[in-house]
Inverse folding.
């Protein structure tokens, strides 16, 4: 085959394309200029006539009459009220038409726009038949509530809203269709409900369109005549608006009619002035504003894990060394407690949302009759059952929690030294004072602490190590406890963990500084490992395309999804985030079922502990960097103060303390990527999804940002799933690769395994290898009729043979060299590949081949498209492996 390494730089940040302005002095052709001038005169002459014939000398007296001001006041009040009604009813209607699909949507849209083409008088008749005293609705309004609309001021508002609201609906619907609906999806992944997303994201982004529609509706309502006079009549001071006054004055006092018309003309000009920015494009944010230059090195300036792990320890449960201030800037005044408090509040609110959605945590084992308590401490002497540690010797004094159910305990502390039921320890060893959890259910306890600082009792523990005070879990269920810490300072945790089940306990440990675990107890990371991490079987049907992949990712692991366009990578990410419903399979995270179509279980995106970094980041353009990061916590119910303080601290840890108030369009590509990462992490996700996180960067910033992102992912102890087209991104960022083609997994393994043993043409192209498949018999692999390759490996049966393009040599005549693999080929193309020329060839059997040659070698061989050559590959430069 003929693989090529994609050396093209990724697409940079896209700037808005401005329309080209006409050249100065360009003249219009006469066939267009003449009708254009006639049309302009047709529109302007009547208005000029109005100005010429106006009674300017008597104008002050005409405009100061009480009848004029009464009609003007009534017109302004009713037009404003009708616009308000149009906004309250029309904006939701426009959103429904633009964002949802339902049967008969086209019919509804046609009916909504019908008043635009319907004669206003007909609209007035329709209103009378519907809302009049004998109308199909008006009769009930009159008999039940005593409300009569015809021939009242309220009737004027109804008539004007009937003809004006379609203008607003059309304007807002068009703006909604032009806006990017993915911002609403991004808001959902941050915990915002659909209404919250509409209120805080969609509405501010479409505000110019809403304002333009409101002005058009107001102007239409101000000039309404036919529906108003038919439905509400013409009663001075009650229903006689300015257009009605003009009509009546024209019959009796033409000068007054002209004066009133000039008033309406002035109002119309004011409306045009208000919409000037929309017509001319002035004031539109400059989408192509220059970005800040990305720093050439990471702003944290630390090592690959130390300072960064400390900066993000509030989220990931790391207890690394104290980090120095980054980039020469001091930390926020809120201190590290602000981010920790925000994280705790986010988790509490997220659990509350899940509970409200009837999502009881699976695997809960609280005893019957147990009482839930928040912030409770283990009482001295409380009866309970200590976790069995082995057999043979007595355990020391133990603080035992009884059969209570601790849900969301912030600081559950066992009473050090309190007497309780003695358990059994390892043979011949004595355990010191122990904080033991009984059959309780600890759900997401951020700092479940044992007897910290209690004196250790000396005794041999299996290997002769001294066992200090130990936090031992009984038959409890720890779900997502990021900092479940035992006794600080103990060096060895002894005994068995009994039947405890640590589910999703990021960074939890029996003892904070424990160096080893003896007896039959496994490490806290491995206990209950079957419930930790991601377990997903994604089945999504989309037309003729079917996605069917199985993913299993452990906490702390970064999984990269690779595949060609249309393979199903982004669909997989959307399914994990809840943005695309599953048609089958299941999705479990840390033992909790988030989606199972067979069981009719599905959590909405806002109820999933999932963070998403979209390909172009989708930072909300109307919010600052700080408000973007605080959006998720605020949507989950965290108060504004803690949310902003925690977000400011998180941005400071990302090296962005000086950019907190910058809008996204003022951020560089790397800065925007870090804000997007901070925004996703601010919601304390247990699953982080990254969709082409580096694709929006130019080549200059990509290297530095890739290194920064690698450090962030290395410190992230939950599950991370990455989608990328770039093999370098996958090799650098991921611990394990999954290659998807045509909706199915074709290969998975570590980057080294994938690079060494590709199993499809696509993977071979990614890693830059020639790949053939054939049948092996010893050292010979028969590839095709007339082509057999000799390898150093001895195999039997189906096999792959791979070798790099640099291993291929080309000759004009059949070579007499030591290379045992030679065959004729035809040059089909050449392209520059770094400092070499990559030559694409096709063998006589139709197999593609790629060879890398130096420029002088290409010149010596006088290669050109269609040239006949011989290819040679040494057996020692091939690699064969079972297919």
């Amino acid at each position: 085959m003929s693989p090529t390494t994609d050396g093209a730089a990724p697409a940079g940040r896209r700037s808005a394309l401005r329309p080209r302005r006409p050249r100065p002095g360009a003249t219009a052709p006469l066939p267009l200029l003449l009708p254009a001038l006639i049309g302009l005169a047709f529109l302007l002459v009547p208005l000029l006539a109005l100005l010429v014939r106006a009674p300017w000398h008597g104008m002050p007296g005409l405009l100061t009459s009480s009848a004029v001001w009464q009609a003007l006041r009534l017109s302004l009040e009713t037009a404003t009220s009708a616009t308000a009604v149009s906004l309250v009813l029309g904006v939701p209607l426009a959103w429904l038409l633009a964002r949802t699909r339902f049967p008969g949507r086209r019919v509804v849209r046609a009916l909504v726009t019908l008043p635009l083409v319907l004669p206003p008088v007909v609209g007035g008749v329709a209103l009378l038949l519907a809302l009049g005293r004998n109308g199909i609705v008006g009769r009930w309004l009159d008999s039940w509530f005593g409300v009569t609309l015809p021939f009242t001021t309220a009737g004027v508002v109804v008539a004007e809203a009937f003809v004006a609201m379609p203008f607003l609906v059309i304007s807002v619907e068009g703006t909604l269709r032009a806006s990017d609906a993915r911002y609403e999806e991004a808001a959902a992944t941050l915990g915002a409900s659909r209404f919250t997303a509409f209120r805080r994201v969609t509405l501010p982004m479409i505000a110019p369109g809403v304002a333009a529609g409101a002005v058009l509706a107001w102007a239409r309502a101000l000039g309404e005549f036919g529906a108003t006079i038919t439905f509400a009549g013409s009663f001075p001071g009650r229903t006689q608006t300015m257009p009605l006054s003009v009509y009546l004055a024209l019959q009796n006092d033409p000068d007054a009619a002209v004066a009133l018309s000039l008033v309406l003309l002035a109002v119309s000009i004011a409306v045009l002035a208000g919409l000037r920015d929309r017509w001319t494009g002035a004031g539109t944010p400059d989408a192509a504003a220059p970005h800040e230059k990305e720093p050439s090195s990471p702003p944290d300036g630390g090592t690959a894990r130390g300072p960064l792990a400390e900066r993000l320890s509030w989220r990931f449960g790391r207890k690394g060394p104290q980090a120095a201030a980054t980039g020469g800037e001091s930390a926020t005044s809120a201190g590290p407690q602000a981010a920790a408090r925000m994280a705790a509040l986010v988790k509490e609110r997220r659990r509350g949302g899940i509970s409200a959605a009837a999502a009881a945590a699976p695997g809960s084992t609280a005893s019957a009759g147990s009482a839930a308590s928040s912030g409770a401490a283990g009482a001295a002497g409380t009866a309970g059952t200590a976790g069995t540690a082995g057999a043979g010797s007595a355990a020391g004094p133990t603080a035992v929690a009884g059969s209570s159910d601790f849900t969301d305990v912030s600081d559950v502390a066992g009473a050090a030294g309190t007497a309780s039921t003695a358990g059994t320890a390892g043979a011949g060893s004595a355990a010191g004072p122990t904080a033991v959890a009984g059959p309780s259910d600890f759900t997401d306890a951020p700092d479940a602490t044992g007897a910290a600082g209690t004196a250790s009792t000396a005794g041999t523990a299996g290997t002769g190590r001294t066992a200090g005070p130990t936090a031992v879990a009984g038959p409890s269920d720890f779900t997502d406890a990021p900092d479940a810490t035992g006794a600080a300072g103990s060096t060895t945790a002894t005994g068995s963990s009994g039947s405890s089940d640590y589910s999703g306990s990021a960074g939890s440990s029996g003892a904070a500084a424990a160096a080893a675990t003896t007896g039959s107890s496994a490490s806290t990371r491995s206990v209950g490992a079957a419930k930790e991490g991601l377990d997903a079987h994604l089945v999504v049907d989309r037309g003729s395309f079917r996605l069917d992949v199985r993913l299993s990712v452990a906490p702390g692991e970064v999984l990269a999804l690779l595949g060609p366009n249309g393979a199903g990578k982004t669909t997989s990410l959307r399914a994990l985030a809840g943005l695309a419903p599953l048609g089958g399979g299941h999705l479990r995270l840390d033992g909790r079922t988030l989606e199972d179509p067979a069981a009719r279980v599905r959590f909405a995106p806002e109820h999933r502990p999932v963070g998403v970094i979209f390909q172009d980041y989708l930072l909300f353009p109307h919010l600052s960097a700080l408000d973007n990061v605080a959006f998720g916590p605020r949507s989950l119910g965290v108060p504004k103060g803690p949310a902003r303080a925690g977000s400011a601290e998180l941005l400071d840890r990302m090296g962005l303390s000086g950019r907190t108030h910058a809008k996204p369009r003022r951020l560089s590509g790397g800065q925007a990527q870090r804000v997007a990462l901070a925004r996703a992490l601010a919601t304390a996700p247990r699953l982080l999804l990254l969709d082409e996180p580096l694709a929006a960067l130019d080549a200059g910033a990509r290297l530095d940002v890739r290194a920064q992102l690698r450090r962030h992912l290395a410190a992230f102890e939950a599950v991370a799933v990455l989608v990328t087209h770039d093999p370098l991104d996958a090799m650098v960022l991921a611990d394990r690769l999954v290659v998807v083609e045509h909706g199915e997994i074709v290969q998975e393994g570590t980057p080294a395994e994938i690079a060494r043993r590709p199993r499809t043409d696509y993977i071979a192209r990614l890693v830059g290898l020639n790949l053939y498949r054939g049948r092996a018999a010893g050292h010979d692999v028969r590839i095709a009729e007339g082509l057999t390759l000799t390898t150093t490996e001895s195999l039997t049966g189906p096999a792959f043979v791979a070798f790099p393009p640099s291993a291929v040599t080309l000759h004009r005549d059949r070579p007499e060299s030591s290379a045992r693999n030679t065959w004729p080929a035809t040059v089909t193309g050449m392209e520059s590949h770094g400092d070499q020329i990559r030559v694409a060839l096709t063998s006589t059997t139709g197999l593609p081949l790629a060879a890398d040659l130096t420029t002088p070698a290409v010149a010596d061989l006088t290669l050109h498209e269609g040239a006949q050559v011989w290819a040679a590959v040494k057996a020692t430069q091939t690699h064969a492996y079972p297919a």
Summary: The chain is about 35% helix and 20% strand. The first helix runs from residue 30 to 52. The CA atoms of residues 242 and 743 lie 65 Å apart.
